[in-house]
Amino acid sequence: MSCSGNLIWDVRKRAIGCTDPYAVRTNYLGRREFVQRLKLEAVLNVHDGCVNTISWNETGEYILSGSDDTNLVITNPYNRKVKTTIRSGHRANVFSAKFMPHTNDQQIVSCSGDGIIFYTHTEKSQEINRQCQFTCHYGTAYEIMTVPNDPYTFLSCGEDGTVRWFDLRMKTSCTKEDCKDDILINCRRAATSISICPLVPYYLAVGCSDSSVRIYDRRMLGTRATGNYTGRGTTGMCVRFAPAHLSTKSCRVTSLCYSEDGQEVLVSYSSDYIYLFNPKDDQARELKGPSEERREELRQPPVKRLRLRGDWSDTGPRARPESERERDGEQSPNVSLMQRMSDMLSRWFEEASEAQSSRARPQTRPRGKTALLSFTSHVSSVFPPGGAEAAGRVISDQSSGVSEASPDTTETVPSTSAPSLGTSSGNSGGSSSTPPGPGRTGTAEPVLSLHYSTEGTTTSTIKLDFTDECFHEHCSACSVFHRRSAAARIQELFRRRKERREMEESETQNIRRPSVKMMYKGHRNSRTMIKESCFWGNNFVMSGSDCGHIFIWDRHTGEHLMLLEADNHVVNCLQPHPYDPILASSGIDYNIKLWSPLEQSPSFNRVLAEEVIARNELMLEETRNTITVPASFMLRMLASLNHIRTDRVEGDRSEGSGQENEDEQ
Q1: Which among 601, 571, 606 is positioned nearest to 588, based on CA atoms?
Q2: Alpha-carbon span 560 to 36, nearest angstrom
Q3: Do residues 449 and 432 make contact, with C-beta atoms less than 8 angstroms apart?
């Protein structure tokens, strides 16, 4: 550690009444007084974008961070100075970056929203480093995991459902198209988080978008590159965990963390809570399949609210539940323009849904002019209501071939295809709009209905039907939509068959199914897909939150012990120092914050904490059935409505002209 670092550390030791740094870890970190005296010590303004990943080096002397600005930055937290800023070569938001062990902090691996992994050497030129890239993942790569004491290999996971194992002794780059050489595990659903047991590193925990956490013994696994890839989902699996109420749902895992002794695993779920389990436990062996009612719900999940991308009004310390906003009125100064647009969009669909449910469903398929807005998302195998928000995406406009980088970090934004006119697909149970009755006039508004489909492993479709006149029109775009829907259904059919076989195989194998040991709640995890939870010492569990606070609980009882306001919007990353009583945090703000126990006395405001927790619970329920769509969704919907109205006016004119001719005859 640097001289300045030692001086600062000496001051900190005196402030907390300790002179031995190891005594701090063994005697002080375990006391609740420690976390209740935490105070903001420093703010490191080292990025020009949301900071999505932070990690300490092995000695705790430096912090490595990655951001929406695509830079990797190495900072000394003690003297607050930047050691190195690296232009990473990433073209999308950086989500994970780690120092390779035992490389003198000179070798870094990182991944980003476009799925590309870079292997960077801090002492080599930018041109050489940019050649060392792996383009094997398709879709977002969420996390990089290094192996303790191994300077040569690392693992990654991503939206394509694969966990890949790379060995830098074999290759330092790979740009092969549709590469499968380094797949270690194919989960067949998005693999969103991974963690390696620190004491027994061949145990690998994988969190997926189907609410499951699976632990594998890597000694039984291999890749095509090593010549022993099996491809079977249960090979090497020794543990499968899911909370009972989530076993038939699709709740994404945003964070996995082993305890220091490897005896427990902490798992954080999107739109739900944090759970602790013991991998050696086997008290929940029976995981029932979804009921018929649940299968129907999965086929047509509820969509109660739509949020426009860029609307962060429901995040941060000053965010309020919808019930409070309605009480205060829309003219409240806290209501942003983006929030009002989101509210208006949701009201449109609520009214359309009410109108749709009040009409009798026809027995035969109605004919109508239909505008389809299809949004394909590579975010989730089942685009989960409230949970389909990953950090930073690249939006691809398929109609124009234009690609634009997302300016907002941690939101998942579905890519969009241009609206097409044609017959609605039967993918979502058919159109429920009714043909115009005899009493309809030419000035009546088009009927709007919403269909929400989750068929397929990596795609979801929001389909809007605008039905006015009773005619039928086909187009090439619609036939393409039909083909894609059919392909998605076939893909989903095969995936479910494999899943059933996997479950049947797991029943006959010695795969443990632990039960929940402890639950931690009060925070809110729905807006971002990189929200971390972690242990601090032996007695504390921590998490970021959409309310902009850091939450700290008693690990053994689940009691809420501390609340720290740490971001104007969302706290995503929490990383305790490996030795010193320092906590690093980051989120939507463009900085890294450092926290230390510098308060003179415990400062936990329990009344404020209870207010925040109550609001979070209300807002978590609101966002469970909320999905985020780009602004182009609203613009294209308005354009489609306008197009239909224009066509109707022209049609009315032509019909009127024809009627006049008939009267004259």
Answers
A1: 571
A2: 11
A3: yes
